[in-house]
Amino acid sequence: MAGRQDNLMEEIRLTFPRKVSYLRLVAHISKQVCSLIKKCRVGENFANDVELCMSEACTNAIKYGYCDETEDVISLYFQIFSDRLVLKVQDKGSGFNLNNLPKPDINSLSDRGYGIYIIRSKMDNVQYSQTTEGNFLTMTKFFKDQNKA
Amino acid sequence: MKLSVTRKDGILVITPKFKRIDASVATDLKSKLLEFLKNGDKIIVINLSEVDFIDSSGLGVLVLILRKIGTDGKIKLCKLNEGVKSIFELTRLDEVFEIHKTEEGALESLRSH
């Protein structure tokens, strides 16, 4: 039964140039992917959280992911499982340490650091890995938790 | 990127005329808002009624402007839709910004100072 839960039902991939002008396309596709799984108990809040977190993750990858211009693309993976949506954002930059990022300090009116904080708040699981294929920010949201936020 | 800019009783009212504030518009928005500060406008209402999406890039711009204004001026936000308001609450920036339900409410709070 556990194996059945882990069956990947569908995967949608998108590769796009490392430009902020593509963020609207990412938002549109994020919503469309969620509409594919709407019949599986996910609602508007779920779709809004996915759109927001993909915007945050792609912005990070676009702005901070690269140390040169030779690997100028970002790749996204939307993986639909029976009980969850897994989102992966791949870049080939120098990467960062997810655990070393400070929480945003509103008392000092810091204008940075909100992105990963928002992702951690909205997603059920967030992991970051650096491999020979690039850096992967992997975000998981379970369908059953749609009303959590 | 289009902004509607009006002046009411000496208070600058800025209304972004677009739905999303993300990294694709944040740099332009920051430049335009900083230009207003440079020109001496430091009592500002930002009407977000037409914005239905904001992410950390947009929040960062607004926090930067708040910090630049400092104690020399005031900035008030108004007419946030539920989705946008929820992001301010999530990041606790609703404790930093004064947020009004209506533009008139924001203007009135500034007139009374």
CATH homologous superfamily of chain A?
Histidine kinase-like ATPase, C-terminal domain
Give the overall form of chain B.
globular
Number of helices of chain B: 4
State the assembly state of the protein chains: heterodimer
Number of domains of chain A: 1
Q: Helix coverage percent of residues of chain B?
A: 40-55%
N to C succession of SSEs of chain B: EEEHEEHEHEH
Main sheet specs of chain A: 5 strands, antiparallel
CATH-scheme architecture of chain B = 2-Layer Sandwich
Report the portion of residues of chain A in β strands. Answer: 25-35%
Strand order within the widest beta sheet of chain A = 1-2-3-5-4
Q: Between the first and last Cα atoms of chain B, what is the distance in angstroms?
A: 32 Å
Structural class computed from helices and strand pairing of chain A: alpha+beta
Order of helices and strands of chain A: HEHHEEHEE
CATH class of chain B: Alpha Beta
Helicity level of chain A: 25-40%
Number of helices of chain A: 4
Shape of chain A: globular
Strand order of the largest sheet of chain B: 1-2-4-6-7
Structure characterization notes:
The complex is a heterodimer of chains A (149) and B (113). Chain A is of the alpha+beta class and 149 residues long. Helix content of chain A is 32%, strand content 29%. In chain A, helix 2 (23-36) packs antiparallel against helix 3 (44-64) and helix 3 (44-64) runs antiparallel to helix 4 (114-122). The model of chain A is unreliable at 145-149 (pLDDT under 50). In chain B, strand 6, helix 3 (82-90) and strand 7 form a beta-alpha-beta unit. In chain B, helix 1 packs parallel to helix 2 (56-69). Chain B has four helices and seven strands. With 113 residues, chain B is α/β, with parallel strands linked by helices. The longest helix of chain B is centred in the first third of the chain and has 16 residues, at 23-38. Chain B has a single domain (3-108), classed as STAS domain (Transcription Regulator spoIIAA). The chains are: A alpha+beta (149), B alpha/beta (113). At the A-B interface, helix 2, helix 3 and helix 4 of A face helix 2 and helix 3 of B.
